[in-house]
Amino acid sequence: MELHKNFLWGGSTAANQYEGAYLANGKGLSIADVEMGSRHGIPREIHESVKDDKYYPSHEGVDFYHHYKEDIALFAEMGFTCFRLSINWPRIFPKGDEEIPNEEGLAFYDKVFDELISYGIEPIVTLSHYETPLHLVHTYGSWRSRELITFFERFCEVVFKRYKNKVRYWLTFNEINETLNQKQPYHQAGIVFNDLQENQIQTKFTACHNMFVASAKAVIKAHEINPNCKVGCMLQYPTTYPATCKPNDVFAARVHLMPDYYCGDVMCYGYYSNTCTALQKRWGGSLQVSEEDAKILQDGKVDFISFSYYFSSIASLDKNDNLEVKNSNPYLERTDWDWPIDPMGLRIGLNELYDRYQLPLFIVENGLGAIDKIEEDGSIRDDYRIAYLASHIEAMKDAITIDDVDVMGYACWGPIDIVSVGTGEMRKRYGFIYVDKDDEGKGTMKRRKKKSFTWYKKVIRTNGVDT
Ligand code: BGP
Fold it and tell me: Is this prediction's ipTM beyond 0.90?
């Protein structure tokens, strides 16, 4: 059995890690623009002011803003049929709460989408990938506030109308479930916890609810403006195994997935399921959903599920019912960043998500972050990256052809080297295309094809047959 002929192949990026030009042509600051990199031993964290540019990786990214033609030509050469990017929200609404959008920001994405379309590449557009306008963070407390729903709705309406003839696939919030999982969910929800008195659990549930309503309103609006478009949610899927066959550990694996299903359930079923209320109880939070919101959630269910998958985890419960999650699965090799390499985990994740939701799935992130070496002859022989991707593509094919899971496409993370979100470094590279820039921000930004470039081209040409 083969993959269907319209299967989408490509790669994924995010504006804050790729575009650079952080203040160009009227763009405002996003929360990512005040997030320092972790180089020089300084932990990656949010600072209130932008003092020293070189510590802020999003300011320059790898300058897609000025290299988009060259980069898209390289993606086209590999045969991409889709390319995922995010619209940098403060490029369109510099502060986030103004009424009139920034025309120059809109014009930039017109050029990018036109370029993609000229090669027959379908843009897959994330509406919010860690780029909440900083002004909304400072003035409203970000997604703690319902007011953000209105601002996000306005942003969505503007871009849906503007690009309705160019973009068919939209994703609402990148890895929305990480709002619940992260200690400081500033990437996902623009929230930094400074006040020790704040009930963080309650804030996370409230922020998620506001984002769910915003996501549902975006789905409704997008369908109204273009009935042919498809809007998906975006989850990080952490396939989880019990650490042992002890029944408590088996239950622990389920418990670990609860925050992920919490978000998936609301956006796919359109209501708070028993898993959601069970998690609220488990964490000691609560939520009152108004009739009006309940209707919006029901009317704004997503059309498909996009997700990221990098590695699996193992879970156990201790005597006091506390969850312990580790990445020390003895059966798996690890990456340079200690992430377990587990292609079967992808097949399992695809099965679990499809069984639960019966919606088409789109793998929009998967890949190997590694340190690449340039050989004397200038080549980069990234066989480790090819091995990682080939094994995951094979696992995906098994899920499709053997397990009958409906998968729309595969867009691996960072088809060109971009800044790492976790560390702010350049040396954690995912790309088929190398970019000459180091952790100090030095380099020519010159693009260079790696060995994996030719390999991925062959995979796409054969629609995944030849990996
Ligand atoms: C995901 C994010 C991406 C991306 C990826 C890899 O969580 O959606 O933005 O960066 O992780 O992570 P890292 O860059 O830390 O290797």
Answer: yes
